[in-house]
Amino acid sequence: MSLYEASFRVKHECPYREISERHPDLTIREWYLSDCQVLEITSSETPTDELLEEIDALGTVLHESVDDSGLHVVTQACLCSLEESIIDRFEEYNCLYQPPTIHRHGWEHYTVIAFDEGDVRALLRDLEADRDIDVLSKTAVAEQTIPHSMLAPVDQLFEDLTERQLAALRLALESGYYEQPRKTSLRELAERTSVARSTYEEHLRKAENKLLTNAGEFLRLVTATTAGDPLQVEGAARSEGRAD
């Protein structure tokens, strides 16, 4: 089975695109999370005071460095500036958005992957109707050549998990709970929190369940072309049938 990848750039009213237009040496990479955006801003040139002021206005600066290699800033921003329509359109046409969005030289660069070439064509026609768009590439690619990480946007994997569930999952992961052999127990993990063991375990199990459920569509995609039956599931089912 082949997948179809399209890369294109667009112009519309967007503060990040406009900054990249005013500062041609600048590159902004944008990731969308469930409740915020993370921006990585880089430049090989020494930034002006004007540029630094514009960056400070974008959101909360998590990291900033200016040295001989240039500028590197990581910023967290709210979703108020997100152009929801274009992301929604990707989903409407069954196209998987591949982050990050890259803002450079006054253009926004996007890459999407679809399971049907017709979906890609329809999406591009729709976008051409109300914005400047420049298609950079549109190719059929073998599914095996696409890194599995590209098919699993982080925000989708962690969709519907609460803050406490995420915290419980992170604590277990960082404490070695999922290593073999395990380096800690549920009792020890719960003792490090202010909640009862039963409450902590409930948060952790719900987090595991939601994470695996969200990852299900990507797991099916990854294994769609796997040859053979390594666990011999079908063979076991036939044996049970004969026994009945």
TrEMBL record:
The keyword Transcription applies. Residues 161-212 form the HTH bat-type domain. Gene3D superfamilies: Winged helix-like DNA-binding domain superfamily/Winged helix DNA-binding domain. Residues 5-150 form the HVO-A0563 N-terminal domain. Keywords: Transcription, Transcription regulation. The keyword Transcription regulation applies. It comes from the Archaea. Pfam families: HTH_10, HVO_A0563_N. This is XRE family transcriptional regulator.
